[in-house]
Amino acid sequence: MQNRPLEKQKQQGEHGEDNYNCSACKDTEFILYKNDDGYDVARPCDCRERNAWKRRFKNSMIPDEFTNSNFENYQRLSKVQESMYQSTFDYLKLFKIETGTEGRKKKIIPPWNFGFVAVFGEQRLKELPSSERPAVKQKHNNYGIGKTHLQVSLAKRLIKDGFNVVIVSDVMFMEQLMQAKKMSDEGESYNQLLRNVLNADVLIWDDIGKVNWTEPRERMYYTIINERYRSQKPIVFNSNEDRGSLAEKIGYAAASRLIGQADEFLLETEGADWRLKKGAKTHV
């Protein structure tokens, strides 16, 4: 018996029928038909945009713990959370996809960054005498107020609307990037990581400034932030550092571009840690 092609073997069902995710186009994402002149032409299948959304979602690298995060389940329990929520929606409104001539779509992407930073940064807290830290931490808490939840929700909405979004977590991303550069001498792995964050319509940088400072890392921050600054592509970021301590962690030149490009979309945030409240309720 002659072997069937591998693709056909994968698609063949129990009864010898080919199974496709979309029976209309047979997973080609295009449907062939004859026009009035009798020529074969193709039009996009209805599944094309749905599949594109799935690819954008997969490529965004949304952290597993925020898979279910959305605007609807974000709890606005304080004025600062209400302000964060409203600012995020105001920023979302700046993104548009316009349909031009011949059905071509054009992405309208704001050049401004959008960030949440602390009033009193983590680095400042560590520099205090140990006896003073608990009181200052309680007064200026910036942890567990929903910064990442909101920005992941923003990412999901943008992905659904047709934008390419990439989310990185500072410590893991910087370690991967520096390791790839060291091991491959700026080979394919390193270049791929850079391309992902430089080419995305929107880069969401979670907990930026968390990793310990080194001169090579400062150069890496500058490379990414400066390239996106030059190409007018926004960075959405959050940090447990304040303006000053963030500049010390990522470098003053990088911070000038990151923070300066945020303008009115930079919020200094602090409030009650909902994770602690949730944990207390769990043990009642």
UniProtKB/TrEMBL annotation:
Using the record's annotation, list all stretches that form the IstB-like ATP-binding domain.
143-244
Tell me one GO molecular function of this protein: ATP binding
Task: Show the Gene3D superfamilies listed in the entry.
Answer: P-loop containing nucleotide triphosphate hydrolases (3.40.50.300)
Q: What protein does this entry describe?
A: DNA replication protein
Q: Name one Pfam family in it.
A: IstB_IS21
- InterPro entries for this protein: IstB_ATP-bd, P-loop_NTPase
Domain of life the protein comes from: Bacteria
Q: Which is a GO BP term held by this UniProt record?
A: DNA replication
